[in-house]
Amino acid sequence: MNCKKIYFRLASLVVILTTIGVREISAQNKSITRMGSMNTLSFDQGWSFARYGLQPDGTRKEEPSGLEVSSFHDSGWQKLNLPHDWAISGPFRIELEGSTGKLPWKGIGWYRKHFTVHQADAGKRVFVDFDGAMANAKIWLNGKYVGTWPYGYSSFRMDLTPFLEFGKENVLAVRLDTEDWDSRWYPGAGIYRHVWLVKTDPVHVGHWGTYITTPQVSDQKAVVNIVTTVNNQSLKDEKAIVRTTLYELDKLDKPSLQVGVTKDISIDINAGENKGVSSKAILLKPKLWSIETPHRYVAKTTIHINGKVVDSYFTPFGVRTIEFTAKNGFLLNGKRVQIQGTCNHHDLGALGAAFNLSALTRQLKLLKDMGCNSLRTSHNPPAPELLEMADKMGFLVWDEAFDAWEKGKRKNDYNKIFDEWHDKDLTALVHRDRNHPSVFIWSIGNEVMEQQNAELTKHLVDIVHRKDPTRPVSNGYNDPDGGRSSGAVVALDLMGVNYFFGQQARWDADPRYANKPTLGSETSSCVSTRGTYYFGGTEYKNWQITSYDTASPGWGCAPDEQFRTNAKYPNLLGEYVWTGFDYLGEPTPYNSDETNLLNFRTDASKKEDLEKQLAAIRKNNPPSRSSYFGIIDLAGFPKDRFYSYQAQWRPNLPMAHILPHWNWPERLDSITPVHVYTSGDEAELFLNGKSLGRKAKTPGKDFRLVWDKVIYQPGVLKVLSYKKGKLWATDVVKTTGAMAKLALSSDRTSTKADKDDLCFITLKVTDKAGLMVPGSNPDIHFSIEGPGEIVATDNGDATSFVSFQSHERPAFNGMALLIVKPKKGAKGMITIKAQSDGLATGFTKIQVQ
Ligand code: GAL
């Protein structure tokens, strides 16, 4: 046979093998976003729920004993599917803490699920994986205690096998208790994330049992190291072969082209043993993961015994390099990337803590549109899907573990469980998340009370580094001077500073920290209410806050001020703004909870002043139940600040944004300042065609253009923005007519009923010409026909006590939100209607496929 023939034979063999590999996976038609075993089934459907202890109205209901036993009759319990947040339906109660959303989240929740595992599976291991359960989870199977996991933000696995009866009905019982948990924000309550049933052969890849790193990356090749933990849970010693094949992961999360394979590794694994296996594959011409092109790969690890595949395990991963420097900032794949991040709590507004992928995706799309490139999961481990979406959409993630260590900020926060659980929780976080290309920084805490404790800091950093030495560890400091002078910061790879950048020059001069890369782990904390404007120096009124983007608590600043600081210290890595979205709880400055005082714990004089303010707030009993910090409001509607960040973070996007609105009949002939955010460098403002002057930004100093002497006349306000002398972008704001109609627009025209997809419908109150009428708050009645149901409504008003489940609510400053779910398994057209007395009804339609 000549060489040419051999070459072709080999080539076709490779093609055949590749195709088999691909077919083998796609035959499962499996979307791979989650690391884990092939045999992972959703366990969300068909749960029963009952609430004991504290009830929504504040009364107590005795918790009977024996709720875990199989024979207990739960037929009278509420039937539901997960994820579930038992507190989001309220009611809001004025006497409850604003810091946790004035919602009745404290209580004891019991969940039970009856299920059968087929007799044919006898001999398998069966696990239940919880992505998160709030809080103090205790789990029983068939009346037998299986285990506990107190921290509500951690993902965890329980092995059901010892108590499982194959081919018969089993009862899984979960008890959650939030009565002994305190929080500085709304934590939600219940099994609020997904649950999975995993079936494996006795010899299988362990839980989060792969660790993929890429120690060498060039244009030509990447070395991919794979460490696999194999568990032998059988009673027999076994000989196994471990092999990992690499594929590209396409946009639909399907493995496509095979791009590499490891050598087969043979292992002897004794009964009951867990064994680590290292292998290596070479990826030629790797497609790097980046913010703009987030290429992903997936590793399929198979375990073979006697020629039979006993386990297939998938690990999505990416190939990228990260480098943190004190002088040149952060480098992704060798290129400088300024961190333009937002901090976010985990709630999804009107849906509460109950996880939903389309709600999260909506949030992430808005952040991307603003130019945000990084997420800080303040102040706890996120839902796994957040990282899966960050991998897919191109966000970098600061992955955070804790808001408190040994000394709590509240009586019953993490301090209660720190000693026993911090190692397990940190390990769970790092093992779960260390294969995500998006995760680039670990954070061991936020403004913890022990931030000066060098020993404890080092202890926690070491735990993380043992599990993953490839990423830096940071901590968010609100007492950076204290942390530096005590030496605690020495243990960290990165210095995270909340709000105090003014002293950076002094810190850079300290030889201990001159080479410590630093970033603004929390910045700004500007507060505002969408569509609300106050004049003449007033920033706060009626429990709302002006949207001129000037107000912030004492420790914070306007976005512009932070941009100025960033410009002054170009060596800093960037910032995480507090916060991307408004969230439930912490309605500063109307927060009547004592954690308000924490921000000044290092300055006694300020504390005294704050205590007085707090006493006054408490006397007035504020109705505020959600935050004002968001760049985007609780309903997902951008505030003016959105455009401030967009102008700065997307300099190549031609945009201009005028504020305020131009409906001020009571301000006729009065001075009404006009501000413009633009990615241009100059702009000219016109009122009713007359120029009010052209203004230019001084680089590094001005981040908005201000016409502060505009005399109000109704009509048309127009801005022409210029970049390098050329027309760049325009914006127009018009005085509107009276309210005339309701306009509905959906974020999708069709949807699938087989997923957990939600449709987000925006309502605008408009005049006859279709312009949104500022300040309009008419009562709206929403109704729906066809195969769908209303899940929630909202309007972004932080003081509204209308239940999120209500179909009636006023618009707030011209807008409201409706969230609709298609009925499972149904098809047809959903018609949604919004009605209000005297206004033309709004309609929209969504096709359910
Ligand atoms: C920070 C704290 C955040 C939030 C914020 C409000 O000090 O880390 O969790 O409370 O203040 O400005």
UniProtKB/TrEMBL annotation:
Domain Glycosyl hydrolases family 2 sugar binding, first and last residues per copy: 107-200
Glycoside hydrolase family 2 immunoglobulin-like beta-sandwich domain segment(s): 212-320
Occurrences of domain DUF4982 (ranges): 671-729
Residues annotated as domain Glycoside hydrolase family: 742-841
Keywords: Glycosidase, Hydrolase
One Pfam entry name: Glyco_hydro_2
Stretches assigned to the Glycoside hydrolase family 2 catalytic domain: 327-475
Family affiliation: Belongs to the glycosyl hydrolase 2 family.
Record protein name field: DUF4982 domain-containing protein
